[in-house]
Specification:
The protein is mainly alpha-helical and about 100 residues long. The chain contains two helices and no strands. The chain is about 70% helix and about 0% strand.
């Protein structure tokens, strides 16, 4: 017993109604694709602008911190190149002080 139904594809038996359903479905699918594309472009633009703003902000703060660290280093060791501190020292012998 083979059972087949002619109404599997379309709900209406009228060919004009079937054509209208196909046309309406194609329009809905096309509109969804176009709106989805524009939504994707808008979201991508927002993400790119946000990433640029955050990147510039991080770069600016990093530069500001490097300048602040450079200013502190100059106050600690004026004229010392490369952060090397020069100085003199005297070795004190423990036995020599007690005598």
């Amino acid at each position: 017993m083979r059972q087949s139904s002619l109404k599997n594809g379309f709900p209406a038996g009228n060919p004009i109604a079937n054509a209208l359903v196909v046309i309406a479905g194609a329009l809905v699918i096309g509109a969804s694709i176009v709106l989805g594309f524009f939504a994707f472009i808008a979201l991508s633009g927002i993400v790119l602008v946000s990433a640029a703003i955050i990147g510039i902000r991080v770069w600016w703060l990093k530069r500001k911190m490097e300048r602040a660290m450079g200013d502190q280093g100059d106050q600690r060791t004026p004229g010392a190149p490369g952060g090397v501190i020069e100085g003199e020292y005297k070795v004190v012998d423990k036995d020599h002080d007690e005598a």
